[in-house]
Amino acid sequence: MKEFEKPLALALIAVFLLSACEKKEIEERLPKDMPKIILEKLCLTETKSGQRLWTLNADRADVYDEIIKVDEVTVRFYDENEQEYSVLNAPRGELNTRTHNIFVEDSVYVVTSDSTRLFTESLFWLNDSARILTDAYVKILKRDGTVIEGKGLRTDPRLSRIEIIGETKGTSPISLPDIRK
């Protein structure tokens, strides 16, 4: 190696090591679970044969490989005429971009077009079977005054076919007629 090449080679090695150290420092300072993309005001629509099934709106979305973490999430469900029949709200949730399943948590509530309301701490939307599931405590209030409470739930987004999985209690304003009259 020629005499003038030695300082040049040393300088190049020093620059390489310095840039490697800086890169390592930057990587160490970044959170390990850094999203690939951060979005504000996200709106996703699930369709089948061009027909809208549901939409997910969120104030913020952190996009990872298969998961999108969302804040202030609203999911609107639509019937075959694309009329909204149910709305799910939650402070945060996650959408799996491969399965389109949705998990929401922290003061979740669902309101249907007939004013039925469901309250719970977490819900799971199973997209392929169009079912809502939870193993958390649930409270359901119907317009007629019926109250259903229990632990665990399987239902459709209309809240028309409700199955409480665990212990259940409830009240209903329905009064039965006297059979002797």
Write a structural description.
It contains 1 helix and 10 strands. The chain is mostly beta strands and 181 residues long. The protein folds into 2 domains: 30 residues; 135 residues, Lipopolysaccharide (LPS) transport protein A like domain (lipopolysaccharide transport protein A fold, Sandwich), CATH 2.60.450.10. Strands 1, 2, 3, 4, 5, 6, 7, 8, 9 and 10 form a 10-stranded antiparallel sheet that branches. A hairpin with a 3-residue loop joins strand 2 and strand 3. The mean pLDDT is 87.
Key attributes of the depicted protein:
about 55% strand; lipopolysaccharide transport protein A fold; mainly beta
Give the arrangement of secondary structure elements.
Elements: H1 5-29, E1 37-48, E2 51-63, E3 67-78, E4 84-96, E5 102-112, E6 117-126, E7 131-141, E8 147-155, E9 163-164, E10 168-171
Antiparallel strand pairs: 1-2, 2-3, 3-4, 4-5, 5-6, 6-7, 7-8, 8-9, 8-10
In short:
This protein is mainly beta. 14% of the residues lie in helices and 54% in strands. It is elongated and about 115 Å long.
Query: How many individual domains?
Result: 2
Specify the biggest β-sheet: 10 strands, antiparallel
Output the CATH topology of the largest domain: lipopolysaccharide transport protein A fold
From the 3D coordinates, which CATH architecture of the largest domain would you assign? Sandwich
Helix count from the secondary structure assignment: 1
